[in-house]
Amino acid sequence: MHPHPPPYTKAPRYSGEYYYEERPRGGNPCLKCICCCYCILFFIILLVSALAFYFYTVYQPKLPHYNVEALEVKEFGYQPDFTLTMAIIVTIKAENPNKAIELTYGEASSMNVTYTDSTLCSGKLPAFHQGHKNTTIIQVELKGKSQFGSGLYEAMQENEKNGKVPLLVIVKVPVEVLFGTRRLKQFNVLANCSLIVNNLKAGKKAEIVESKFTYKLSH
């Protein structure tokens, strides 16, 4: 058997002196560090994916549902100077179908009712907390006074004769998501509700002939 080579080898002799070269031991430390970082990153991704899968499988989170239930006209007047004054009460139903997620609706909200891109009245939703598996009915009073051309008013009157006045309710409200006592995320709900009502007579509830609710979430 041959003996193990010494840890140092003797280099060729030059000018009467010897130089020793040390043999490298082990692997590249930079490569080891990179491999270790990749392993940690892979473990974190795997852990987050497992937690997300568990959360969605067990708690089955769902988006909340909204709908305009009623619209009551309190005031509606058209002046000779083409000024339209309007006050209505809009009843909204908000449903939280989740069994473990609660929602908190913030104060910085806005709500507008428009007719062919002309704002009729505006207001804001009240701030409130909605528990899990909860349905909340909200009544919002909206008021407005705006310039309304005679042609636009005549078109609205014609719509009312046919029993089909198109309105658009635009809502923006900040919502905070809570899981138990833990705050998860805050986002804005941007909702559009296209309505067709039969009339806008003061002192009467407008019958909602058709409604279509669409909304999206933004950060």
TrEMBL record:
Annotated organism of origin: Nicotiana tabacum
Cellular compartments annotated: Membrane
Gene (name only): LOC107813902
Designated name of the protein: NDR1/HIN1-like protein 6
Domain Late embryogenesis abundant protein LEA-2 subgroup, first and last residues per copy: 91-173
Listed Pfam families: LEA_2
Key words of the record: Membrane, Transmembrane, Transmembrane helix
Main localization category: membrane
Segments passing through the bilayer: 33-56
GO terms (BP aspect): defense response to other organism
InterPro entries per UniProt: LEA_2 (IPR004864), NDR1-like (IPR044839)
Superkingdom of origin organism: Eukaryota
Topology relative to the membrane: Single-pass membrane protein
A GO CC term assigned to this protein in UniProt: membrane
